[in-house]
């Protein structure tokens, strides 16, 4: 079965925008294109889903299958072409100082939508080129699922499907604590698994740029306010503007170290994230001049600030810093209370 999943609001744009007449026309074109794209997306998805029965063995003769495949291919290609036009309109708007707020995010969502369409197009083209009945019948069971929607799964101790995963994350939070942080985790209120396909694709693509491409992601903690955690889950990390090791994104191995940055009262939020460290530079002294360019020039992908290096103006606890948002993606949201 061929599927494309898109967030229902992926193409909504801000309303009641005040712009000069010269820019308003361009913005209205962009709005119209995105609305049309949304309808076209739904139509394309319906066509793909309705076609699955046609490719079961014995349902069609080869000539009819060929026609259906060609129609599907053209439909998907036209949809992708419309997306490209909308993105071009957004690019034009963004060159102007009076570009409406939200166009940049809208453009990113449009570009994220190209991935699943391209996958579908490539699959149909391969089937057409193969001429094989076996490959054609694979369309009835093939699932090309490249969603842009965030999937959040609540884990539970009492459910057999998620209990082992829950206990593993709970153990990680409770075991990696240190008394010098002055924080006691009294209760874990909930654990959610986070799957954001856009951020995951972004990480996979960025991995090819690392000095050490074979290094698997490390799972590390990041503490912040709940409202910020929700933004990270949806849109990914953003770079900080300062820190002991420059303007980066900071992670820790100890849950209580990251919990120091959870400033909510009552229930607090921790993120356990996949982080691409690649080739890390060991730092035992503060370096607030670091950024992505300087670190890359030195042949490294991240910083490992080694614990117990206070005597050399370093840190008390292990910390890791990355300098590109594509190096990290949230994997679990842990809500907890402190004593």
TrEMBL record:
- The Enzyme Commission number assigned here is 2.4.2.-
The UniProt keywords, alphabetically, are: Glycosyltransferase, NAD, Transferase
Q: Which domain of life is it from?
A: Eukaryota
Q: Where is the PARP catalytic domain?
A: 142-339
Recorded GO cellular component terms are:
nucleus
Top class in the EC scheme: transferase
Matching entries from PROSITE patterns are given as:
PARP_CATALYTIC (PS51059)
Task: Select a single GO molecular function from the record's annotations and give it.
Answer: NAD+-protein mono-ADP-ribosyltransferase activity
Q: What is this protein called?
A: Poly [ADP-ribose] polymerase
């Amino acid at each position: 079965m061929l599927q494309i999943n898109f967030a229902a609001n992926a193409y909504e744009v801000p309303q009641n925008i005040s712009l000069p007449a010269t820019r308003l026309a361009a913005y209205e074109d962009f709005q119209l294109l995105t609305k049309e794209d949304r309808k076209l997306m739904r139509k394309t998805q319906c066509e793909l889903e309705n076609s699955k029965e046609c490719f079961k063995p014995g349902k069609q003769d080869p000539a009819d299958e060929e026609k259906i495949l060609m129609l599907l291919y053209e439909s998907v290609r036209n949809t992708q072409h419309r997306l490209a036009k909308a993105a071009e309109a957004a690019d034009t708007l963004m060159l102007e100082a009076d570009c409406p707020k939200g166009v940049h995010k809208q453009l990113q969502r449009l570009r994220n939508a190209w991935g699943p369409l391209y996958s579908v197009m490539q699959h149909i083209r391969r089937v057409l080129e193969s001429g094989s009945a076996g490959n054609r019948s694979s369309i009835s069971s093939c699932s090309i699922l490249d969603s842009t929607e965030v999937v959040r799964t609540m884990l539970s101790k009492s459910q057999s499907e998620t209990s082992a995963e829950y206990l593993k994350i709970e153990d990680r939070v409770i075991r990696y604590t240190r008394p010098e942080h002055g924080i006691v985790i009294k209760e874990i209120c909930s654990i959610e698994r986070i799957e954001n396909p856009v951020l995951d694709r972004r990480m996979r693509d960025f991995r090819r740029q690392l000095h050490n491409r074979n290094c698997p992601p490390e799972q590390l903690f990041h503490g912040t306010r709940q409202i910020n955690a929700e933004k990270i889950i949806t849109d990914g990390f953003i770079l900080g503007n300062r820190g002991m090791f420059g303007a980066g994104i900071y992670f820790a191995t100890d849950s209580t170290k990251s919990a120091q940055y959870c400033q909510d009262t009552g229930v607090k939020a921790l993120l356990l994230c996949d982080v691409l460290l690649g080739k890390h530079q060991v730092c035992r002294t503060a370096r607030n001049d670091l950024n992505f360019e300087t670190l890359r020039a030195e042949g490294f992908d991240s910083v490992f600030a080694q614990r117990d290096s206070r005597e050399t103006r370093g840190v008390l606890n292990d910390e890791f810093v990355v300098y590109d948002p594509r190096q990290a993606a949230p994997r679990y949201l842990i809500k907890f209370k402190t004593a």
